[in-house]
Predict the structure.
Amino acid sequence: MDSVFEHNQKLQQAGSFTAADLEENKLGRYSPAQLKRFEETRNFMRYSANKYDNKGPIVSLIFGSGLLVFAVVLYFVGVFDLLRNALGSLFFPVLAGALLFAALFVFVIVPRQYQASVEMARSMGTPLAASPLGEIQTIEARAEVYTSQGGVNRRGHQSARVSHILQMDSIKFIITDSLRETIQSKRLYRVWVVKDQGVWVLLGMEALE
C-alpha cells in the first residue's frame, strides 16, 4: 500500500479535482472550477432538451413504421391465418382492438413519454442562479469500488452502459474508470459530496490511512 501522500496525489491525477478544489470543499465552499463544471453540465442538459423538444411526431413515425413492418412480417409468415383459424368470428374484433391499442401507443403514449423525458432533461438544466447547489457534505468510510452494467440513469430509464461505482456507506457515486483503478477497496477515505437534483456527485476525496 502506498503512502497517504502518494495515494492522494494519484487520486487527484485520476479524478476531476485538484488540491485547490479540496481546500475550498473543506471550508464548505465550491471552487470556481467546480462551479464552472456544474454550469457547463446544466447548459448541456438544457441544450439537449431544446434540441430534442417537439420531436414527438417523428418518434411516433418511427414507432409506427416499426409496428407496420412487424405486422407485415407476421402476415407473410402466416400468423394472421393461424389466428383467423383459431379465433374464428372473433378474429376481426380482436384485430380491431389490437389496431386501436397500437394507435393509442404510437400516437398518445409514446409522444407523452418522450416529451416527459425532454422536460425532465430541461429541469436538470436549470441555471445555477435559479437553482443553486446544495450544501457540501463530508463522509468518512471505507471504500467499495466495482463495475456495474445496466441499472437506471439520471432520467429514471433503464441503461445498458457500463458504470464504475464508488460506494461509501450506503451512498453510491458514478466515477471514471481511471479513478476506479486508483481507489483501493477497504481503504479509509474522506469524501466531499453534494446531492444535486437527486443524484449524489463526488466533488473530491482523500485517503485517511
